[in-house]
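B., you asked whether I could sanity-check this one before it goes into the benchmark set. Here's the sequence:
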Amino acid sequence: MSILNSVLKIFVGDKKKSDLKLLQPIIAKVNSFENEISKLTNDELRSKTIYFKQKISDGTLEITSKINDLNEEAHNANVDRKEEIYAEIDELEDLRYEASEKILEDLMPEAFAVVKETAKRFVENETITVTATPFDRELSATRDNINLENDKAIWANSWNAQGKEVTWDMVHYDVQLIGGSVLHQGKIAEMMTGEGKTLVSTLPVYLNALTGKGVHVVTVNDYLAKRDAAWMGPIFEFHGLSVDCIDHHQPNSDERRKAYNSDITYGTNNEFGFDYLRDNMAHSPNDLVQRPHNYAIVDEVDSVLVDDARTPLIISGATANADRHEFNELKPSVDRIVSIQRNYLTGVLAEAKKLIGDGNTKEGAILLYRVFRGLPKSKALIKYLSQEGIKQLLQKTENFYMQDNNREMPAIDKDLYFVIDEKHNSIELTDKGISFLSGDDGDESFFILPDLSTAIGSIDKEDTTEEEKIAKKETLYRDFSIKSERIHTMNQLLKAYTLFEKDIEYVIMEDKIKIVDEQTGRIMEGRRYSDGLHQAIEAKENVKIEAATQTYATVTLQNYFRMYRKLSGMTGTAITEAGEFWDIYKLDVIEIPTNVPLERKDREDLVFKTKREKYNAVIDEIVNLVNQGRPVLVGTTSVEISELLGRMLSIRKINHNVLNAKLHKKEADIVAQAGNPGVVTIATNMAGRGTDIKLSEAVKKAGGLAIIGTERHDSRRVDRQLRGRAGRQGDPGTSQFYVSLEDNLMRLFGSERIAKMMDRMGLEDGEVIQHSMITKSIERAQRKVEENNFGVRKRLLEYDDVMNSQREVVYKRRRHALYGDRLQVDIVNMVYDTCSTLIQENKITSDFQNFEFELIRFSSTSAPFSEEEFKTLTSQELTDTLFDKVYKHYKEKLDRSAQAAYPVIKDVYEKQGDRFERIVVPFTDGTKELKVVTNLKEAYETQGKGLVTDFEKNITLAIIDDTWKDHLRQMDELKQSVQNATYEQKDPLLIYKFESFELFNTMLDKVNKEVLSFLFKGSLPSQDANQVLQAREQKREKVQLSKEEYKGPNEATQTNQTQPQQVVETIIRTERKIGRNEQVTIKNVMTGENKSVKYKQAIPLIQIEFVVIDWEQYRSLPWTEKGPLR
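And here's what the prediction gave me:
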């Protein structure tokens, strides 16, 4: 591969060099302003910000004026003109953004020079005196570093940064100017550890904050967000730019809204995403906190946009039958079957060893492969595979039985109860396992899914009545659904017992299962595996099994961050994922050179046969390094290995600190000591993010920080993070990885060549090989894992892209309803679409009678044309005529509603206007009731029109929210049910796209009809002023904030951090809602014919000439027993 890269560089060129060639001029441009700016007084330096802002304002003034004029025109324009105006405004907003970006590009060198000069003055002066502005006076009330003396403000160069007193001591290097330029251009700046990424960000943050549109700085945790806001904040505030951190404030609070309205806003990726979802559940514009997404800089961008991209953000709440499951019932059976298979395979492994030892490698290899298929993580098996020639024997056997699409595999699996595929994180019961488990219940088909197509065909051929056939089909569907859920529960339990180990994938703390992040080793507080896996682990470990939830709102971080007009990021380890960044986010990765040449020595990997030999060598090397007076940072991949090494060091009487998921609260103290002479720190990859280990001169002379990696991680980025702790700013240091053939990466993806080479060399126990070819081979194995993980993330994104296209439509409509300014255009489109649908549905069959019936039902108007005209005119002509009539009727209806409501409003205002500001007015359409909140004074002054406008807003919001929530539940069910398509050799994603499109069209049609029906029929139930009440703050329903992490094609993790959140159900149903899979009896109103079908099949029929007459008998059945989606 390196040879190919070298050849490509000859013909194409080196990307790194060509990038730097384009960026290098920024240094000269910034330096050209330095002399001029250094001569400015402090007040003149601050006035530069006002000058920059004025240039941006002047450059966009013409476009801004046009936008303001159009907004003014929109107030009195007709609906057709409004639609044109809003389209023009959207185009002008894009043009204004492009114009401001061009101005920022021209201002960049001078603006960077201003920030650099500001940093320089804070370094050189303990205090800086300036003329006090109102902003200075406001800040001085809460900032200890700002004091007022008459008309002067005195800024100190020391301040509190999240509990730590800091004195400003940083000035931007030349290479940092390049990094700032890269970030401003909307790219990723890859900078090594210690190069000052946080300082680099001040350059583009200041520049882009000048537009007043807001800059978001995104961090991986709340500590870094709060620290960086406090640490960098005074540099921006000195120039009159407001800075805040959303993690200081409660969700939905005025303080958080103020934080978002600041020029610069710091926060964590999760909180930014959850605030977006909360805003799209708000019921008043006053509840919104975020502004339009303008520009974001993501710190540790690979962690946020790659690692956390596996974790969709979810707001969820209670769901029916949340505590229904069979985990406790099936757990004893799983416990037995796992125990039986383990005992059986222990004997098989012993027999395989004996046969291979006696020279019968053919039979021995078959038994060995059977053990591998049944328990691949068995420690005895892993140890045996490290012996000379054994792994090659297993690989040859595997290749033989996997040929011809696994044709011979049943011979291996016939004596197993279940088969594990560790690479794909999946597990499957064999026929023997199904028989064993079914025997407990006495039902041989207890775990066997019925073949639906065959069974339905058999039922249809039976010589029985239609009613009996329907009853048999319903029983079949119910049996299929129950068994599907049972098999899913069983598979999750088997995974919990065989693939997920305590203290590696999770730990038990406070009687709860807590997941350990494989990338950082940190506890992921509150996060849960979804799809029932977490509940299975809870059952396995005998802790409380938590209830399931229903989705209210969801978005992936990938789609959230793609909403920003400009996105950039910084990290030290993005280059290995450059392809993914470009493919998903269109972000280019630019490598920034170091300020001082790198002195760290990265040694080739040491490869051992067994873990025991490897760990002994690690301990020997630590003892040697401690004796040299060098600090040692030991990186591990799990809590278990950290504790093992800790015990081994204790035996050798070596003092050390252990930092892992169980001890993460001590991180700051342990990292602070990690650079002292002879200090040994063991960390589970945690020392990689956001930490800086500083060395004394004595340590530097001894050789610097020594990095020891005890295992290669699945991702090269994590290994680079560990290495990056040493060698900051030209410090000396070394890094060395220790690898064994028993390591997970080597077992699953390691090259066969390594094992063969060690066998040919005849290495004895404890002997080691070290060569650049070996290191490259290991990195190739890591690439395989990275490609697989990228596939998982991309698959997740493909599913969410379907949801995202729907989410954008719904949330856009919701915003229009919330603000009301574009709602009239949406209502006109609803009326037109509904009229068009009515015409098209009935024109095909020339059914004028049903057309009139549907028209009266939704709009209470008669047809504007005769039956003859209905048959002869074109669909377009009919639609236009019908729309004119219906919309005219709608406007007349609103005027009548305002006139009818005004006497009531007048009575309340004149008698109680001094007591009430906002009131609640009930409206009803005869079946549902909606409580409309409105401003009493505005409703009185507009003679009821203000109330009617709020009526339109409230009913649109309420029906969109109600229908969207149901749609999300259906999409959740669909996403699970389509996975069964793999059994039919079909792509679940294609089926998901097709079915979700149909579901979404049905949802939009339902929203249109329900909104219009209520608007046409809604009225005050009476003219009694006593029914009008004062608006009170509504109680918020408790919901859960969730993150869902995909471990494999069908697995995920999810958070359950309960937060109060307003989820208002404003529609009161007077009849029970029918589920899509409920069996209903419908009647043809024309012929009297009865049919028994599922409700989802009845929906199109009900819209034509059928009505539902019987579904009460199915009320008591849970949805899981209604049959699967087909």
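One thing to flag: Residues 198 and 228 are 7 Å apart (CA to CA). Otherwise nothing jumped out at me.
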